[in-house]
Every structure is written in structure tokens, then in C-alpha cells.
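Bug #77: duplicate submission created two jobs. Keeping one. Sequence:
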Amino acid sequence: MSSSSSTRYRSFFVFPILFAVLFLGLLIPSSADNRHVINFRSPGLYPEGLTWDPRDQHFLVGSLHSRTIHSVSDAGVIETLISDLDLPENSTILGLAVDSTNRRLLACIQSLPPLPPFSALASYDLRSGGRRVFLSPLPSLPGDDEDIARDVANDVAVDFKGNAYVTNSAKNFIWKVDRDGAASIFSKSPLFNSQPVAADADASFRDCGLNGIVYISKGYLLVVQSNTGKVFKVDEDSGNARLVLLNGDLIAADGMTRRRRDGTVMVVSQKKLWLLKSQDSWSEGVVYDEIDLDIEGFPTAVTVAGRDRIYVLYGRVMEGIMGSSYKEEGAREWFGIEEVWSEKEGGEDKIWLYVLIGFGFAYFCFWRFQMKKLITNMDKKIT
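Kept job's structure:
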């Protein structure tokens, strides 16, 4: 082989090999922790609720005492989106949900003791900068005395028609509020009171029943019960409930959300995040991952943001409930929204990545063999 042919031969192999090495280096995930951590400053906010606005691409958080709802960018820039001074003073804004169809934000409004009882659902128009559409007081069960045991509007989910479903954590039933603000008791299934309170339930959630709720487009809702750790499937028409059979109880569960891409449901507690899947429309389900969280941060809510990334809210609500408020000196100033990453899901992604790399390497070897034959034939013609 001539020197020019030898040089040409080497160039056909050296550069592709260098390219392949660089390409593989870029593809293989780094072992470093690249989770997205957002710290935002708002003295005395103590947010309990969190949701994601897919259109405006920012998070929305509530407040413990200030009657405000705020947007938080992925860089931690916080802005007051809604300040509703018509709400009872010191009202708490708990669960939040974005009605993407009608461009509305739904918020559970609650007055905590020693304030007079007040439970409502508020709807705000996101197209007009947060103008309130309605404020619907939520009805008590007939004969109930709220001075003895008050209702607690905790979390909210919304269907594609604009109907909202709100959990009552104190009385174990679900309200329904239509898109015009008409509120009614939707589901008070006996099943909600049939399960024993978990033996290890402490005072912080022993009396907390139905909590996080999500809507499934196939015609039902999923709702989790804090003090029993059970999950229920509730028909959106009849309100009838069924117990979802799981491989474990979600003790002290709080907020929940769902990833539309694959139907995975995420449930957060003050200690961990559970990831659940089902193959039979939630007659049964499996907890396939448990992720430890920062207990001190007191996580209460979880949402799915852009690119299907999972985030939890560290609002330190218990600290705020125990006395600190936005009006007091020394109230906490910084709070956090942090991405949570599943090692098991990441492992599956790596497997597919390595499969693709394997196919690519096989193709490269085949290409190398073909190029070697081509150069050999060219050299024969030259000689």
C-alpha cells in the first residue's frame, strides 16, 4: 500500500473513533447529583401547596397566613400573582391546581384555629392576572357542628370540564365544585371510614383523613388517606369508592400528582416520596420506589413540571403553624422547591442508553469493515 493510501486509510478510522469516544462520553450520564434545587425568599410565607403552570412555565405556591399566591421561576424568582384581601384574615391557602382548559387556578382556602371555621374553594382567572372568578364556601354535612369539629378543605383536583374535587381531611368526604362555583358534597363513601388508623400514626396526622387527590381522564379520581395510608379509586359520576390494593401503606401521605406520559402517581409525605404504577386502571397498584426526603424541610406537596421532572415543596409549614408568621420578626425567609430523581427510573434509562450505544457500535464495526474493503479495492486498482 502506498504512503498516501496508508494516510487515507488511517484518517478513515482515527477520526470516526475519536468522534465515537466523544459521543459516548456525552451520552453516558454523569454520576454527579444534577438535581435542580430552587431556593426562593419570601419572609414568613410557609407555603403548603404547590403546582406547575405548564403554559407560563413556572411554579405556583400558596401561603400559610398572608392570603397570597405566588409564582416561582426555575431560577428562584418569586412574584406575587394573587393577593386576595377579601378572604378572611390569616386564611391559609392549601391545595392548588391549574385548570389548563379554562386557564384558571383553583385554591383551597381554610381558616385554622383559633380563627372561626371557614372552608372554601377559590377560582382565579390566569388570563387576567389573577382576577377572582368565584369564592365558593363548602357545605358541611347535615347536622354537623363545626364549632366542635370543623371541616378542612385540603387538596383539589380538576377534570377537563372544569369541575373541581376537594378533599375534606377532617370528615373524610369529597366536595365537588362545578366551573360556575356551585358546591356540593360529592362522595361520602362508607369505605373512607372503614380502614383502621395506622398503629404508628402520631399526633401530627392521626386525625388527618382524605388528603391528596388526582383526576384520571378515564373517569375516576385517586385519593390518598393520611392516617391509614390507603388509596381509593372514586368514580367521577357516582362518587362510589373502591380500595386500591397496594403492596404497602402510604402512612402520613400528603399531596399527590400524576405524570401523564406513563401514568405514574407520586405521593409525598414528610419523610419520603412514593412512586406508584398500575396495569389495570388502579384496581391494584404497586409502590415501585421510595425516596427519602429532608424531614426538617417538612415536604407537603409534589408536582410534575417541564420535561416530566418531579419536584417537592419544602415549605416548613409546621414551623409556621407552631407560631412564626409573616408578621413576626425572625420568621423564616427562605424556602425550597427541589427536584426528586428516582434511581430505579434512571437505571431503566441507562439500560436503553446502553442498548442504543450497542447498536451504534455494531453499525460502526460494520461500516469499518465495508470501508476496509473499499480501500483495499482502491489500492488494487491503483497498483
